[in-house]
Amino acid sequence: MSLPDVESLRLLVFVGQDGSLTTAATRAGMTQPAASKRISSLERRFGLRLLERSPTGSTVTAAGRLVCEWAERVLEDLQLMLEGVEALRRERTAQLSLAASLTVAEHLLPTWIGDLRRNSPELHVGLQVLNSTRVCELALHGEIDLGFIESPRRLRGLRSQVVARDRLVLVVAPGHPWSRRRHPIDAAKLAGTPLISRETGSGTRDTVEQALLATGLTPADPLLELGSTAAVRSSVATGAGPALLSELVVAQDLAAGTLREVPTTGIELHRTLRAVWRADTTPSGTTADLLAIATRTNPARARP
Protein backbone atom coordinates (compact mmCIF):
# COMPACT_ATOMS: atom_id res chain seq x y z
CA MET A 1 0.00 0.00 0.00
CA SER A 2 1.43 3.38 -0.98
CA LEU A 3 1.52 6.21 1.55
CA PRO A 4 -1.26 8.83 1.46
CA ASP A 5 -0.37 12.48 1.03
CA VAL A 6 -0.34 14.77 4.07
CA GLU A 7 -3.03 17.15 2.80
CA SER A 8 -5.50 14.31 2.34
CA LEU A 9 -4.85 13.10 5.88
CA ARG A 10 -5.30 16.61 7.22
CA LEU A 11 -8.58 16.92 5.33
CA LEU A 12 -9.79 13.62 6.80
CA VAL A 13 -8.93 14.83 10.31
CA PHE A 14 -10.91 18.04 9.65
CA VAL A 15 -13.91 15.98 8.54
CA GLY A 16 -13.69 13.93 11.72
CA GLN A 17 -13.45 17.08 13.87
CA ASP A 18 -16.18 19.08 12.09
CA GLY A 19 -18.55 16.28 11.08
CA SER A 20 -18.96 17.99 7.71
CA LEU A 21 -17.08 17.56 4.45
CA THR A 22 -18.07 21.05 3.32
CA THR A 23 -16.76 22.70 6.48
CA ALA A 24 -13.60 20.60 6.36
CA ALA A 25 -13.03 21.61 2.73
CA THR A 26 -13.26 25.29 3.71
CA ARG A 27 -10.74 24.80 6.54
CA ALA A 28 -8.40 23.01 4.14
CA GLY A 29 -8.71 25.82 1.57
CA MET A 30 -10.24 23.73 -1.20
CA THR A 31 -13.60 23.34 -2.92
CA GLN A 32 -16.12 20.75 -1.80
CA PRO A 33 -15.79 18.70 -5.01
CA ALA A 34 -11.99 18.66 -4.68
CA ALA A 35 -12.31 17.57 -1.04
CA SER A 36 -14.76 14.82 -1.97
CA LYS A 37 -12.36 13.59 -4.65
CA ARG A 38 -9.50 13.43 -2.14
CA ILE A 39 -11.55 11.43 0.37
CA SER A 40 -12.64 9.04 -2.39
CA SER A 41 -8.98 8.58 -3.33
CA LEU A 42 -8.14 7.76 0.30
CA GLU A 43 -10.99 5.23 0.42
CA ARG A 44 -9.66 3.47 -2.66
CA ARG A 45 -6.11 3.53 -1.28
CA PHE A 46 -7.18 2.07 2.08
CA GLY A 47 -9.89 -0.21 0.75
CA LEU A 48 -12.27 1.20 3.38
CA ARG A 49 -15.40 3.34 3.37
CA LEU A 50 -14.50 6.40 5.42
CA LEU A 51 -17.67 8.48 4.88
CA GLU A 52 -21.36 7.70 4.60
CA ARG A 53 -22.72 10.03 1.92
CA SER A 54 -26.33 11.16 1.72
CA PRO A 55 -28.28 14.03 0.13
CA THR A 56 -28.16 15.83 3.51
CA GLY A 57 -24.40 15.52 3.94
CA SER A 58 -21.58 13.14 4.86
CA THR A 59 -20.84 11.44 8.18
CA VAL A 60 -17.72 9.55 9.25
CA THR A 61 -18.06 5.77 9.45
CA ALA A 62 -16.84 3.73 12.44
CA ALA A 63 -13.76 2.76 10.42
CA GLY A 64 -13.37 6.38 9.37
CA ARG A 65 -13.32 7.53 12.98
CA LEU A 66 -10.46 5.14 13.77
CA VAL A 67 -8.52 6.26 10.71
CA CYS A 68 -9.13 9.90 11.70
CA GLU A 69 -7.62 9.24 15.14
CA TRP A 70 -4.59 7.51 13.63
CA ALA A 71 -4.17 10.27 11.04
CA GLU A 72 -4.26 12.90 13.80
CA ARG A 73 -1.40 11.14 15.59
CA VAL A 74 0.59 10.92 12.38
CA LEU A 75 0.13 14.65 11.75
CA GLU A 76 1.12 15.49 15.34
CA ASP A 77 4.28 13.38 15.00
CA LEU A 78 5.03 15.02 11.67
CA GLN A 79 4.68 18.47 13.25
CA LEU A 80 7.01 17.43 16.06
CA MET A 81 9.53 16.26 13.50
CA LEU A 82 9.35 19.55 11.61
CA GLU A 83 9.76 21.54 14.83
CA GLY A 84 12.71 19.36 15.80
CA VAL A 85 14.35 19.87 12.41
CA GLU A 86 13.85 23.61 12.75
CA ALA A 87 15.40 23.55 16.23
CA LEU A 88 18.39 21.63 14.87
CA ARG A 89 18.70 24.10 12.01
CA ARG A 90 18.64 27.05 14.40
CA GLU A 91 21.22 25.40 16.63
CA ARG A 92 23.44 24.67 13.64
CA THR A 93 23.23 28.25 12.39
CA ALA A 94 23.48 29.91 15.79
CA GLN A 95 26.18 32.57 15.81
CA LEU A 96 26.37 32.63 19.61
CA SER A 97 25.74 29.49 21.63
CA LEU A 98 24.92 29.97 25.32
CA ALA A 99 23.78 27.95 28.31
CA ALA A 100 22.63 29.40 31.61
CA SER A 101 21.16 28.43 34.94
CA LEU A 102 17.54 29.37 35.41
CA THR A 103 18.13 32.43 37.61
CA VAL A 104 20.49 34.05 35.10
CA ALA A 105 18.42 32.96 32.09
CA GLU A 106 15.18 34.43 33.43
CA HIS A 107 16.32 37.55 35.23
CA LEU A 108 19.57 38.80 33.66
CA LEU A 109 20.28 37.35 30.22
CA PRO A 110 17.27 38.86 28.41
CA THR A 111 18.56 42.37 29.12
CA TRP A 112 22.15 41.48 28.19
CA ILE A 113 21.11 39.80 24.93
CA GLY A 114 18.82 42.73 24.11
CA ASP A 115 21.73 45.15 24.52
CA LEU A 116 23.95 42.92 22.40
CA ARG A 117 21.41 42.63 19.57
CA ARG A 118 20.86 46.39 19.44
CA ASN A 119 24.35 46.63 17.98
CA SER A 120 24.07 43.35 16.05
CA PRO A 121 20.39 43.01 15.00
CA GLU A 122 21.11 40.06 12.69
CA LEU A 123 22.77 38.05 15.46
CA HIS A 124 21.16 34.69 16.22
CA VAL A 125 21.55 33.46 19.80
CA GLY A 126 21.04 29.84 20.82
CA LEU A 127 20.30 29.45 24.54
CA GLN A 128 19.92 26.31 26.66
CA VAL A 129 18.53 26.63 30.20
CA LEU A 130 20.13 24.00 32.44
CA ASN A 131 21.40 23.56 35.97
CA SER A 132 24.88 24.87 36.80
CA THR A 133 26.56 21.45 36.67
CA ARG A 134 25.29 20.77 33.15
CA VAL A 135 26.26 24.28 31.99
CA CYS A 136 29.83 23.65 33.16
CA GLU A 137 29.92 20.29 31.36
CA LEU A 138 28.90 21.91 28.06
CA ALA A 139 31.46 24.70 28.50
CA LEU A 140 34.22 22.22 29.36
CA HIS A 141 33.55 20.17 26.21
CA GLY A 142 33.38 23.25 23.98
CA GLU A 143 29.70 22.73 23.13
CA ILE A 144 28.82 26.35 23.98
CA ASP A 145 30.60 29.67 23.58
CA LEU A 146 29.72 30.94 27.04
CA GLY A 147 27.89 29.66 30.11
CA PHE A 148 26.36 31.37 33.13
CA ILE A 149 26.17 29.63 36.49
CA GLU A 150 25.26 30.05 40.18
CA SER A 151 27.38 27.25 41.63
CA PRO A 152 30.08 28.12 44.20
CA ARG A 153 32.20 25.07 43.38
CA ARG A 154 35.73 25.34 41.99
CA LEU A 155 35.65 24.93 38.23
CA ARG A 156 38.30 22.60 36.84
CA GLY A 157 39.25 23.27 33.23
CA LEU A 158 37.22 26.48 33.09
CA ARG A 159 37.79 30.16 33.61
CA SER A 160 35.10 32.41 35.02
CA GLN A 161 34.18 36.01 35.58
CA VAL A 162 31.71 37.50 38.03
CA VAL A 163 28.74 39.04 36.24
CA ALA A 164 26.35 39.71 39.14
CA ARG A 165 25.85 39.29 42.85
CA ASP A 166 22.89 37.59 44.44
CA ARG A 167 21.52 36.59 47.84
CA LEU A 168 19.53 33.53 48.83
CA VAL A 169 16.56 34.30 51.05
CA LEU A 170 14.59 31.95 53.25
CA VAL A 171 10.93 32.09 52.19
CA VAL A 172 7.71 30.56 53.50
CA ALA A 173 3.99 30.88 52.81
CA PRO A 174 2.18 33.66 54.74
CA GLY A 175 0.48 31.05 56.94
CA HIS A 176 3.66 29.19 57.87
CA PRO A 177 4.65 29.39 61.58
CA TRP A 178 8.03 30.89 60.65
CA SER A 179 6.33 33.89 59.04
CA ARG A 180 5.44 35.12 62.53
CA ARG A 181 8.85 34.58 64.16
CA ARG A 182 10.40 37.52 65.97
CA HIS A 183 13.92 36.09 65.87
CA PRO A 184 16.03 34.95 62.88
CA ILE A 185 16.49 31.28 62.01
CA ASP A 186 20.04 30.29 62.93
CA ALA A 187 22.30 27.98 60.93
CA ALA A 188 21.72 24.99 63.21
CA LYS A 189 17.94 25.17 62.90
CA LEU A 190 18.23 25.73 59.17
CA ALA A 191 20.51 22.70 58.77
CA GLY A 192 18.15 20.53 60.80
CA THR A 193 15.04 21.53 58.84
CA PRO A 194 14.12 19.64 55.65
CA LEU A 195 13.74 22.28 52.95
CA ILE A 196 12.05 22.26 49.57
CA SER A 197 15.03 22.08 47.23
CA ARG A 198 16.15 21.93 43.62
CA GLU A 199 17.77 18.79 42.25
CA THR A 200 21.41 17.81 42.77
CA GLY A 201 23.56 19.89 40.40
CA SER A 202 21.52 23.06 40.85
CA GLY A 203 23.61 26.11 41.70
CA THR A 204 21.13 27.20 44.37
CA ARG A 205 21.29 23.82 46.09
CA ASP A 206 25.10 23.80 45.88
CA THR A 207 25.22 27.26 47.48
CA VAL A 208 23.00 26.21 50.38
CA GLU A 209 24.94 22.99 51.02
CA GLN A 210 28.33 24.73 50.84
CA ALA A 211 27.15 27.54 53.15
CA LEU A 212 25.97 25.06 55.79
CA LEU A 213 29.07 22.90 55.50
CA ALA A 214 31.16 26.06 56.04
CA THR A 215 29.53 26.39 59.47
CA GLY A 216 30.36 22.77 60.30
CA LEU A 217 26.77 21.61 59.78
CA THR A 218 25.38 18.96 57.44
CA PRO A 219 22.06 19.87 55.83
CA ALA A 220 19.05 17.63 56.36
CA ASP A 221 17.71 15.67 53.41
CA PRO A 222 15.28 17.75 51.32
CA LEU A 223 11.60 17.77 52.19
CA LEU A 224 10.89 17.84 48.45
CA GLU A 225 13.36 17.72 45.56
CA LEU A 226 12.02 19.50 42.49
CA GLY A 227 13.41 20.06 39.02
CA SER A 228 12.58 23.74 38.56
CA THR A 229 12.60 26.97 40.54
CA ALA A 230 8.98 27.61 39.55
CA ALA A 231 7.97 24.30 41.13
CA VAL A 232 9.84 25.18 44.33
CA ARG A 233 8.16 28.60 44.51
CA SER A 234 4.72 27.09 43.95
CA SER A 235 5.26 24.44 46.61
CA VAL A 236 6.38 27.04 49.15
CA ALA A 237 3.39 29.26 48.33
CA THR A 238 0.97 26.38 48.98
CA GLY A 239 2.43 25.91 52.44
CA ALA A 240 4.37 22.72 51.75
CA GLY A 241 7.45 24.03 53.56
CA PRO A 242 10.30 26.56 53.53
CA ALA A 243 12.93 27.03 50.82
CA LEU A 244 16.03 29.09 50.13
CA LEU A 245 15.70 30.88 46.80
CA SER A 246 17.39 33.67 44.89
CA GLU A 247 16.34 37.18 45.83
CA LEU A 248 16.04 37.85 42.10
CA VAL A 249 13.53 35.01 41.76
CA VAL A 250 11.25 35.87 44.70
CA ALA A 251 11.38 39.69 44.63
CA GLN A 252 7.91 40.02 43.08
CA ASP A 253 6.44 37.34 45.35
CA LEU A 254 7.75 39.18 48.42
CA ALA A 255 6.39 42.50 47.16
CA ALA A 256 2.99 40.94 46.48
CA GLY A 257 2.90 39.17 49.83
CA THR A 258 2.46 35.68 48.35
CA LEU A 259 5.73 34.68 50.05
CA ARG A 260 7.32 35.92 53.26
CA GLU A 261 11.03 36.29 53.93
CA VAL A 262 12.32 34.81 57.18
CA PRO A 263 15.56 36.42 58.46
CA THR A 264 18.54 34.12 58.99
CA THR A 265 21.66 34.43 61.10
CA GLY A 266 25.02 32.69 61.36
CA ILE A 267 25.18 31.65 57.70
CA GLU A 268 26.52 33.42 54.62
CA LEU A 269 23.95 33.26 51.81
CA HIS A 270 25.41 35.84 49.41
CA ARG A 271 26.82 34.44 46.18
CA THR A 272 28.29 35.49 42.86
CA LEU A 273 26.83 34.63 39.47
CA ARG A 274 29.52 33.91 36.93
CA ALA A 275 30.19 33.51 33.24
CA VAL A 276 32.28 30.43 32.39
CA TRP A 277 34.29 29.28 29.38
CA ARG A 278 37.04 26.78 28.58
CA ALA A 279 40.36 27.60 30.21
CA ASP A 280 42.27 27.12 26.95
CA THR A 281 40.19 29.68 25.04
CA THR A 282 39.73 33.45 25.15
CA PRO A 283 36.30 35.02 24.54
CA SER A 284 36.28 36.97 21.29
CA GLY A 285 33.84 38.55 18.87
CA THR A 286 30.22 38.48 19.99
CA THR A 287 31.16 36.26 22.97
CA ALA A 288 33.50 38.96 24.27
CA ASP A 289 30.87 41.61 23.53
CA LEU A 290 28.27 39.78 25.62
CA LEU A 291 30.77 39.26 28.44
CA ALA A 292 31.57 42.97 28.41
CA ILE A 293 27.89 43.89 28.60
CA ALA A 294 27.32 41.45 31.47
CA THR A 295 30.26 42.76 33.48
CA ARG A 296 30.10 46.47 32.71
CA THR A 297 28.70 47.27 36.16
CA ASN A 298 30.95 44.71 37.83
CA PRO A 299 34.49 44.89 36.40
CA ALA A 300 35.72 41.87 38.39
CA ARG A 301 38.70 40.18 36.86
CA ALA A 302 38.34 36.72 35.42
CA ARG A 303 39.75 34.03 37.64
CA PRO A 304 40.35 30.27 37.20
Summarize the structure.
Mean pLDDT is 88; it is low at 299-304. Helix content is 47%, strand content 21%. The protein contains twelve helices and 13 strands.
Alpha-carbon distance between the termini?
Answer: 63 Å
CATH level 1 name of the largest domain: Alpha Beta
Mean pLDDT: 88
What is the makeup of the main sheet?
7 strands, mixed
Helix content estimate: 40-55%
Please tally the helical runs, counting DSSP H or I stretches of 4 or more residues. Answer: 12
- The number of E-state strands comes to 13
Instruction: Return the string of H and E elements.
Output: HHHEEHEHHEHEEEHEHEHEHEEEH
* Structural domain count: 3
Evaluate the radius of gyration.
Answer: 28 Å
The CATH architecture of the largest domain would be 3-Layer(aba) Sandwich
Give a structural overview.
With 304 residues, this protein is of the alpha/beta class. It has 3 domains: 6-91, Arc Repressor Mutant, subunit A (Orthogonal Bundle); 96-163 and 272-295, 3-Layer(aba) Sandwich (D-Maltodextrin-Binding Protein, domain 2), CATH 3.40.190.10; 165-271, D-Maltodextrin-Binding Protein, domain 2, CATH 3.40.190. Helices cover 47% and strands 21% of the residues. The chain has helices spanning 6-18, 21-28, 32-46, 62-93, 102-107, 109-119, 132-140, 187-192, 203-214, 229-237, 247-256, 285-295; strands at residues 51-54, 57-60, 96-100, 125-129, 146-149, 158-172, 185-186, 196-198, 224-226, 243-246, 260-262, 264-265, 270-278. The strands form 4 sheets. Strands 3, 4, 5, 6, 10, 11 and 13 form a 7-stranded mixed beta sheet that branches. Helix 1 (6-18) packs across helix 3 (32-46), helix 1 (6-18) crosses helix 4 and helix 6 crosses helix 12 (285-295). The chain starts with 5 loop residues before the first helix and ends in a 9-residue tail after the last helix. Mean pLDDT is 88; it is low at 299-304. Pfam families: HTH_1, LysR_substrate. InterPro entries: LysR_HTH_N, LysR_subst-bd, WH-like_DNA-bd_sf, WH_DNA-bd_sf. This is DNA-binding transcriptional LysR family regulator.
